[in-house]
Amino acid sequence: MGRRVGIEEEFLLVDADTGRARGDGPAVARAVEEQTELQQQQVETGTAPHTDLREAASDLLGRRARTAAAARERGARLLALATHPLPTASATTRGERYQRLEDHYGLLVREQLTCGCHVHVEVPDRDEAAAVLDRLRPWTSVLLALSSNSPFWQGADSGYASYRTQVWYRWPTAGPTEPFGDAAGYDRATARLLATGVPLDAGQFYFDARISATHPTVEVRVADVCLLARDAVLLAALTRGLVETAAREAADGLPVPDVSVAALRAASWRAAHDGTGGELVSPTSGRPEPADAVLTALVDHVRPALLDAGDEELVLTGLADVRRRGTGADWQRATAARSGVDAVAREAAEATLRS
């Protein structure tokens, strides 16, 4: 059935009447035994590890429902949006570490009201994990495009499908990385980064993909939180496929793709800008191609791993669904065009609980 997978999701909390962000995150997190986040207007959930993605989907939906119920008890709504569509001011969650972050980074922290989706895939051997990171680098921008769900910023259309990415990449430790080679290379690179004094601790290695410091996993962190739960499960299936494919390539002695960090950042920019509705940088040619063709190439790249894990039908059905209806960014823009930007915040609460 494949490697075990866990899915972490960050959500916005808004007033049930006005749709404006409100700081119920710590109280809601305590009520459902989930995680607080950097801003009081957020809450984070995380599934247990699952091999069967149908079980992961049930777990994810259950956590969304329980967290939404706890929010409703406080007059709030839970939104699976990666940025708030309305003008909003955030407030940093109380606590020593969060306060240190705000003191150190200032406005960067105060404007960091963004929500991502992090997929953990089981890779217990750290040398194998480093080899996986090196080989999945060209494909993470495709996952970003597929998850794009943040077109609005402070009440205006940003011109991006994922403006969260542009805000997130302000962090000095965020984004793609050079190849590490092995676990020792990963440790040397992160130690050098810590030695600069720029990150406060190892929790601030905000790479697009990293070796988890707390779980025996590779953690792929590039995605927006997905509006629909089914898209988060699709993202998890493709991420597991990429991790397994990369592990097999490493075991077979295939070389690490020769692609620079600058080229990877360019690919991420294109994915954040266009989503799945325009062009993406092809991970194989390094040139722009229609997004639909690049999504097809991703499936072809990971198909043997999908077949072995029993995920091929889930992925093909999920991608056909996204191609038909669009991403969360497409839904937000269509809703705003029909009923105004305020309607995005009102209607997203219902969409967040759909399967």
What can you see in these coordinates?
- The chain is α+β, with helices and mostly antiparallel strands and 355 residues long.
- 49% of the residues lie in helices and 14% in strands.
- It contains 14 helices and 10 strands.
- It has helices at residues 25-32, 53-72, 96-105, 107-110, 126-136, 140-147, 163-168, 183-195, 229-251, 261-274, 291-309, 312-325, 328-339, 341-352; strands at residues 5-15, 42-46, 76-79, 116-122, 152-153, 156-157, 209-211, 217-224, 279-281, 288-290.
- Strands 1, 2, 3, 4, 7 and 8 form a 6-stranded antiparallel beta sheet that branches. The protein has a two-stranded antiparallel ribbon with strand order 5-6.
- The longest helix has 23 residues, at 229-251.
- The two termini are 22 Å apart.
- The mean pLDDT is 97.
Largest sheet descriptor: 6 strands, antiparallel
Q: What is the 3D form? A: globular
Helix content: 40-55%
Indicate the structural class: alpha+beta
Number of helices: 14
Order of helices and strands: EHEHEHHEHHEEHHEEHHEEHHHH
What's the count of strands? Answer: 10
Mean pLDDT: 97
Query: CA-to-CA gap between the ends?
Result: 22 Å
Radius of gyration: 19 Å
The low-confidence runs, each spanning 5 or more residues with pLDDT under 50, are none
SS strand fraction: 5-15%
